[in-house]
Amino acid sequence: MISVKNTTHIQSALLDWYAQSAIPYPWRGKGASPYVILVSEFMLQQTQASRVASLLPAFLKVFPTLESLSAATNAQIITAWRGLGYNNRAIRLRDTALAITTTFNGVVPDEPSVLRTLPGIGAYSSESLPCFIYGTRTIVVDVNVRRVYSRLMTSQPHTGALESMSSVRTFAKSIIPDREAATWHHAVMDLGSTICKARSAHCEACPLTNICPSAYLPKAPFQTQRKKEPLLRGEPRRLWRGRLVEKLRDAGKDGLHLEALLPDAKACGVELAEWMTLIDGLKADGVINVGKTIALSD
Ligand code: SF4
Predict the structure, then answer these.
(1) So which residues are the catalytic ones?
(2) 60: Cβ–Cβ under 8 A, 6 or more apart, which residues?
(3) Percent with pLDDT over 70 in the chain
(4) In this predicted model, what pLDDT tens digit does every residue of 134-158 receive, in sequence order?
(5) pLDDT of 207-264, one tens digit each?
(6) How far is the CA of 210 from the centre of ligand 1 (A)?
(7) What predicted TM-score, i.e. pTM, was given to this entire model?
(8) What is the 3-state secondary structure (H, E, C) of the chain?
(9) Residues flanking ligand 1, CB < 6 Å
(10) Which residues in 66-88 are b (16+ Cβ under 10 Å) and which e?
(11) Which of 35, 122, 221, 238 is 20 to 30 A (C-alpha) from 44?
């Protein structure tokens, strides 16, 4: 474990570096309201930060406040979610906005255990929201943070290998500053996404080079640890679902007849029974209504 002296050194070196190099995402800094942070944390769950940064302003134009989002229909929110993927998140975000409006007086709860009772908020978001909204010293560990901490904890070649989550959390507890917890986590995330990257650590540009046990270690073959996704005809099922939703967005409230919605099986190689499984899944998730026509749900 890193000594107290080295902990202080890491904290000041990283925070100084961040003060010069911070990526100016719209959900950071004094201008970011709790509402903007809530929306962006949902978007960031499964979408790259640069993509979220480009799509967030348009979403906020449609839904500028928690109240406006709470009143959105499924069709409205899925339409505004265009380009972000994983449409179920949009519905859960609206449900969470509604719960905050009705049960919590419009104030995002600050307790992780309370946040975890809201739709779409799991272990990660229940800690990131209090940290980024209120500056609470929670432990926020995404994939970038886990990699940076793993390399700071032990000497290891630059591979996909990571320390266990429980030891990373123990390390995090010892290294997160008492103040500036939100700035600290933004700094670690930026270091992980721009310098201490998964496949190429640029130690020569890192503010922690003189203290990191993994600095300049030779590269070993990179081990990918991607979760296996359910596939359909060699592609993730979510992409096929996304194509259906995209067509229904364009169709508007009248929706489409089944034959107009589905591409020709010969052209795409997906049979009717496989399409129907996707449609049943979207219906079960509340994304679409199936009647005489198929449309985004109200
Ligand atoms: S010195 Fe290299 S391995 Fe260590 S944190 Fe910096 S970039 Fe990552």
Answers:
(1) 41
(2) 36, 39
(3) 96
(4) 999 999 999 999 999 999 998 888 7
(5) 999 999 999 987 776 666 667 788 888 888 989 999 899 999 999 888 999 989 987 7
(6) 9
(7) 0.87
(8) CCCHHHHHHHHHHHHHHHHHHCCCCCCCCCCCCHHHHHHHHHHHCCCCHHHHHHHHHHHHHHCCCHHHHHCCCHHHHHHHCCCCCCCHHHHHHHHHHHHHHHHCCCCCCCCHHHHCCCCCCCHHHHHHHHHHHHCCCCCCCCHHHHHHHHHHHCCCCECCCCCCHHHHHHHHHHHCCCCCHHHHHHHHHHHHHHCECCCCECHHHCCCCCCCCCCCCCECCCCCCCCCCCEECCEEHHHHHHHHHHHHHHHHHHCECHHHHCCCHHHHCCCHHHHHHHHHHHHHCCCEEECCCEEECC
(9) 148, 151-152, 195-196, 201, 203, 206, 208-209, 212, 214-215
(10) beebbebebbbbbbbbbebbbbb
(11) 221
Residue 23 has pLDDT above 80, yes or no: yes
pLDDT of residue 2: 67
Ligand 1 centroid, distance to 217 Cα (angstroms)? 9
In the chain, where the domains are located: 32-134, 231-296
The residue-averaged pLDDT of 192-199 equals 93
Assign domain 32-134 to a CATH class: mainly alpha
